[in-house]
Amino acid sequence: MRQALDAAREAATRGEVPVGAAVVCEGQLIAVAANAPRATCDPTAHAEMLAIRAAARALGRDRLADCDLWVTLEPCAMCAGAIAHARIARLYYAADDPKGGAVEHGARFFTQPTCHHRPEIYAGIGAREAAGLLRDFFVARRPR
Protein backbone atom coordinates (compact mmCIF):
# COMPACT_ATOMS: atom_id res chain seq x y z
CA MET A 1 0.00 0.00 0.00
CA ARG A 2 2.96 2.31 0.55
CA GLN A 3 3.71 2.48 -3.19
CA ALA A 4 0.04 3.21 -3.97
CA LEU A 5 -0.06 5.97 -1.34
CA ASP A 6 3.14 7.49 -2.71
CA ALA A 7 1.64 7.44 -6.22
CA ALA A 8 -1.52 9.12 -4.91
CA ARG A 9 0.53 11.83 -3.25
CA GLU A 10 2.40 12.42 -6.52
CA ALA A 11 -0.89 12.63 -8.45
CA ALA A 12 -2.06 15.42 -6.13
CA THR A 13 1.02 17.47 -6.96
CA ARG A 14 -0.03 17.28 -10.63
CA GLY A 15 -3.60 18.39 -9.85
CA GLU A 16 -5.06 14.91 -10.25
CA VAL A 17 -7.37 13.39 -7.65
CA PRO A 18 -4.93 11.59 -5.32
CA VAL A 19 -5.57 7.92 -5.99
CA GLY A 20 -2.77 5.42 -6.50
CA ALA A 21 -2.65 1.72 -7.30
CA ALA A 22 -0.06 -1.04 -7.35
CA VAL A 23 -0.12 -4.57 -8.76
CA VAL A 24 1.88 -7.23 -6.95
CA CYS A 25 2.51 -10.71 -8.35
CA GLU A 26 3.98 -13.44 -6.18
CA GLY A 27 5.36 -10.84 -3.78
CA GLN A 28 6.97 -8.74 -6.51
CA LEU A 29 5.86 -5.21 -7.43
CA ILE A 30 4.85 -5.30 -11.11
CA ALA A 31 3.21 -1.92 -11.71
CA VAL A 32 2.39 1.34 -9.93
CA ALA A 33 0.12 4.05 -11.29
CA ALA A 34 -1.75 7.15 -10.22
CA ASN A 35 -4.88 8.84 -11.47
CA ALA A 36 -4.21 10.69 -14.73
CA PRO A 37 -7.51 11.56 -16.47
CA ARG A 38 -6.73 15.26 -16.69
CA ALA A 39 -3.16 14.86 -17.93
CA THR A 40 -4.16 12.27 -20.52
CA CYS A 41 -7.59 13.70 -21.44
CA ASP A 42 -8.86 10.17 -20.78
CA PRO A 43 -11.76 9.64 -18.38
CA THR A 44 -10.75 5.97 -18.03
CA ALA A 45 -7.24 6.80 -16.77
CA HIS A 46 -8.00 5.83 -13.18
CA ALA A 47 -5.07 4.52 -11.16
CA GLU A 48 -6.48 0.98 -11.13
CA MET A 49 -6.96 0.90 -14.89
CA LEU A 50 -3.46 2.19 -15.57
CA ALA A 51 -1.86 -0.24 -13.08
CA ILE A 52 -3.77 -3.21 -14.50
CA ARG A 53 -2.82 -2.26 -18.07
CA ALA A 54 0.85 -1.84 -17.12
CA ALA A 55 0.92 -5.15 -15.22
CA ALA A 56 -0.70 -7.02 -18.12
CA ARG A 57 1.89 -5.57 -20.53
CA ALA A 58 4.78 -6.34 -18.15
CA LEU A 59 3.62 -9.93 -17.67
CA GLY A 60 2.60 -10.40 -21.31
CA ARG A 61 -0.90 -11.64 -20.55
CA ASP A 62 -4.42 -10.38 -20.00
CA ARG A 63 -5.25 -12.59 -17.02
CA LEU A 64 -3.70 -11.55 -13.72
CA ALA A 65 -5.11 -14.40 -11.62
CA ASP A 66 -1.97 -14.63 -9.48
CA CYS A 67 -1.84 -10.88 -8.83
CA ASP A 68 -3.04 -8.57 -6.08
CA LEU A 69 -4.24 -5.01 -6.60
CA TRP A 70 -3.58 -2.42 -3.92
CA VAL A 71 -5.48 0.86 -4.31
CA THR A 72 -5.93 3.88 -2.08
CA LEU A 73 -9.67 4.33 -2.74
CA GLU A 74 -12.56 1.92 -3.12
CA PRO A 75 -12.80 1.18 -6.87
CA CYS A 76 -15.64 2.57 -8.99
CA ALA A 77 -17.83 0.36 -11.19
CA MET A 78 -15.53 0.77 -14.22
CA CYS A 79 -12.47 -0.29 -12.25
CA ALA A 80 -14.35 -3.14 -10.54
CA GLY A 81 -15.24 -4.41 -14.00
CA ALA A 82 -11.60 -4.29 -15.07
CA ILE A 83 -10.59 -6.12 -11.88
CA ALA A 84 -13.08 -8.88 -12.69
CA HIS A 85 -12.00 -9.12 -16.35
CA ALA A 86 -8.33 -9.29 -15.34
CA ARG A 87 -9.17 -11.99 -12.78
CA ILE A 88 -7.25 -10.16 -10.02
CA ALA A 89 -6.92 -12.58 -7.09
CA ARG A 90 -7.06 -10.11 -4.21
CA LEU A 91 -8.15 -6.49 -3.92
CA TYR A 92 -6.78 -4.40 -1.07
CA TYR A 93 -8.13 -0.88 -0.77
CA ALA A 94 -7.67 1.90 1.75
CA ALA A 95 -10.46 4.48 1.95
CA ASP A 96 -14.15 3.82 1.43
CA ASP A 97 -15.90 5.83 -1.27
CA PRO A 98 -19.58 6.09 -0.31
CA LYS A 99 -20.30 8.35 -3.30
CA GLY A 100 -18.45 6.67 -6.17
CA GLY A 101 -17.30 3.30 -4.87
CA ALA A 102 -18.78 0.09 -6.25
CA VAL A 103 -17.33 -2.57 -3.95
CA GLU A 104 -18.90 -1.92 -0.53
CA HIS A 105 -21.06 0.98 -1.74
CA GLY A 106 -23.21 1.81 -4.76
CA ALA A 107 -23.46 -1.05 -7.24
CA ARG A 108 -21.59 -3.55 -5.02
CA PHE A 109 -20.25 -4.93 -8.28
CA PHE A 110 -18.74 -8.16 -6.97
CA THR A 111 -22.00 -9.27 -5.30
CA GLN A 112 -23.99 -9.12 -8.54
CA PRO A 113 -25.02 -12.48 -10.02
CA THR A 114 -23.71 -11.33 -13.41
CA CYS A 115 -20.20 -10.79 -12.06
CA HIS A 116 -18.04 -13.60 -13.44
CA HIS A 117 -15.06 -13.19 -11.08
CA ARG A 118 -14.89 -12.06 -7.47
CA PRO A 119 -11.53 -11.26 -5.90
CA GLU A 120 -10.88 -11.64 -2.22
CA ILE A 121 -11.47 -8.16 -0.77
CA TYR A 122 -9.63 -6.48 2.10
CA ALA A 123 -10.70 -2.94 2.96
CA GLY A 124 -9.37 -0.25 5.27
CA ILE A 125 -5.61 -0.81 4.90
CA GLY A 126 -4.08 2.67 5.07
CA ALA A 127 -7.55 4.23 5.15
CA ARG A 128 -6.67 7.14 7.42
CA GLU A 129 -3.74 8.30 5.27
CA ALA A 130 -5.61 7.83 1.99
CA ALA A 131 -8.71 9.64 3.26
CA GLY A 132 -6.50 12.47 4.54
CA LEU A 133 -4.88 12.90 1.11
CA LEU A 134 -8.29 13.11 -0.54
CA ARG A 135 -9.73 15.45 2.08
CA ASP A 136 -6.75 17.83 1.88
CA PHE A 137 -6.86 17.79 -1.93
CA PHE A 138 -10.52 18.78 -2.11
CA VAL A 139 -10.39 21.29 0.76
CA ALA A 140 -7.59 23.14 -1.06
CA ARG A 141 -9.77 23.42 -4.19
CA ARG A 142 -13.00 24.62 -2.58
CA PRO A 143 -13.71 28.35 -2.69
CA ARG A 144 -13.62 29.98 0.70
Range of helix content: 25-40%
Mean residue pLDDT: 97
The computed structural class is alpha/beta
How would you characterize the largest beta sheet?
A: 5 strands, mixed
DSSP, total strands: 5
- Gyration radius (Cα, Å) is 14 Å
The SSE string, one letter per element, is: HEEHHEHEEH
Which consecutive residue ranges, at least 5 long each, have pLDDT under 50?
none
* Silhouette: globular
Walk me through this protein's architecture:
- The protein is of the alpha/beta class and 144 residues long.
- Helix content is 38%, strand content 21%.
- It is built from five helices and five strands, in the order H-E-E-H-H-E-H-E-E-H.
- Helix 1 (2-13) runs parallel beside helix 5.
- It is globular and about 45 Å long.
- The model has no long low-confidence stretch (mean pLDDT 97).
List its salient traits:
5 strands, 5 helices
List the helices and strands and how they pair.
Elements: H1 2-13, E1 20-25, E2 28-34, H2 37-40, H3 47-59, E3 67-73, H4 77-86, E4 90-95, E5 120-123, H5 127-141
Short description, anyone?
The chain is α/β, with parallel strands linked by helices.
